[in-house]
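Subject: sequence -> structure tokens, single chain

Hey, anyone have a minute? Need the predicted structure for the following. Not urgent.
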Amino acid sequence: MRPKPRSASKNAILASLSIQDLAAIGRFLEPVALRERMVLQESKRHLDYVYFIESGLVSLRIVGTESMLETAVIGHRGAVGALLLVGGHLSVHESVVIFPGSAHRIRVEDLRRLIDERPEIRKHLSRYVQAVTLHCAYSGLCGVRHDRERRLASWLCLASDAVDAHVLPVTHGYLSSALGLRRAGVTQTLARFEELGLIRKMRGVLQIDERKCLEQRACSCYNVISDAYALPGSMTSSKGRPTDTVAAV
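Reply:
Had a minute. Here:
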């Protein structure tokens, strides 16, 4: 049996498909630039497209009256809107680009038809949906059970995995808002991480210098979520080490 040629796609789901399935879905994909604060998915709205993320980072969040809570971050391992493929027509989440990048999008009706015709595409998407569903569930658990330091360390590791980079263009204000933490507490914890040599804070970005040590300070949720995203044939394993850099914005 000949080895399956690897896809050139940076998206882990697309890269895991066979050449035949990738060709089938590729006829409907169109490239799109992801701009910071671009809304890809609105809550309580019908979704027109599913976005396979190639680079950048998207925040999956629950939005309430004058408040929001991030439930997952989606990077090159995922697809925004995939949760709707397994049932339902209206999204309960909002998806917003927090690090700019690129994606390929496909109309929902085209993807629904493809997964009915090609079961392997459905299998790969279903595996991802299970992972992101677990991510959302553990984010809720983490917010209730774990302390600020472990939650911040976990978020930084998950975001680093999602963008495949050690440099993250993220602010204290965003971390405070996304995790529902006081900004002063976020600043204090990040200063502690810097004193320990785990990270370096620069203008508008955080650089992770000691990834293994940062993982050791993360809560157990990090390993559970990371393992769930370990797709066969994906670009990184659950313990993969990102190597590229995301440009600061």
